[in-house]
Design goal:
This protein is an alpha+beta fold. It folds into 2 domains: about 1-40; about 50-189, Heat Shock Protein 90 (2-Layer Sandwich). The protein is built from 6 helices and 7 strands. Strand 4 (about 110-120) and strand 5 (about 120-130) form a beta hairpin. Helix 1 runs antiparallel to helix 2. The longest helix has 28 residues, at about 15-40.
Length: about 190
C-alpha cells in the first residue's frame, strides 16, 4: 500500500515524497469518483415528508464555506409553504448546485439562493454570476457521466435531476454564456 511505501521512503528525496503525495491525492480523487458511481447506481428512494425547504437552505448556507472570492446570498420568502421533501436529498441537490455555481465563478462573484412560488410550485433558484453555459452544452448537462470539468464525474447534475424527479418536481436551467446560470428546482405544493 502507498502509505507503507511512504514509510519505506523515509529519508528519501523530496521528489520521491512529492510523487507519493501525488499518488495519495489521486487515490483520494478516485475513491470519490467510485463513491459517486456507486451512489448513482443504487439510487435511494426518497423518504418524503412535509417540511420547509427554507430551513434546509438556511442551515446549508450557515455551514457552507465559500472561497473568499465568492459571496453566498439568500433571498428567501418570508412565509414559505411546506412541501413534500427528503431533507438529506434536497440538501444534496442544493449543495451540488451551489458548488457548481462557485466553481463557475472565475474571479469575484455571487451565488444567490432565492425561493418563490409559481402557480402550484415552490421554486428554489440557485443563480451564479459565473461564465454561463453555452446552449450546446446545456442540452447534455443532465446526462450521466457528461462533464466539462477536468476532475468531474458527470454525476452531480444527473443525480440532482433524478432526486428532484423522485420529489415529483423539475430541475431546469437558464443560462447565457458570459452571463451566469440559474438552476431552478420546482417542487409541487
Amino acid at each position: 500500500n502507498v502509505e507503507l511505501l511512504e514509510d519505506e521512503l523515509n529519508g528519501s528525496s523530496d521528489e520521491a515524497h512529492g510523487l507519493i503525495r501525488s499518488v495519495l491525492k489521486e487515490l483520494d480523487r478516485l475513491n470519490d469518483i467510485v463513491s459517486e458511481y456507486l451512489q448513482f447506481s443504487r439510487f435511494p428512494k426518497p423518504q418524503l415528508k412535509r417540511g420547509n425547504a427554507d430551513g434546509i437552505i438556511r442551515e446549508f448556507v450557515e455551514n457552507f464555506k465559500a472561497p473568499p472570492k465568492v459571496r453566498i446570498e439568500t433571498k428567501l420568502m418570508t412565509s414559505a409553504p411546506e412541501v413534500w421533501l427528503d431533507e438529506g436529498l434536497l440538501r444534496q441537490v442544493i449543495e451540488n448546485l451551489v458548488r457548481n455555481g462557485v466553481e463557475a465563478i472565475e474571479d469575484e462573484g455571487v451565488v444567490e439562493i432565492e425561493t418563490d412560488m409559481i402557480e402550484r410550485f415552490f421554486v428554489i433558484r440557485v443563480k451564479d454570476t459565473g461564465r454561463g453555459i453555452p446552449p450546446e452544452i446545456q442540452t447534455k448537462l443532465f446526462e450521466p457521466f457528461f462533464t466539462t470539468k477536468a476532475h468531474g464525474t458527470g454525476l452531480g447534475l444527473a443525480t440532482s435531476q433524478q432526486i428532484i424527479f423522485e420529489h415529483n418536481g423539475h430541475l431546469v436551467i437558464e443560462s447565457q454564456a458570459g452571463k451566469g446560470s440559474t438552476f431552478s428546482i420546482l417542487l409541487p405544493i
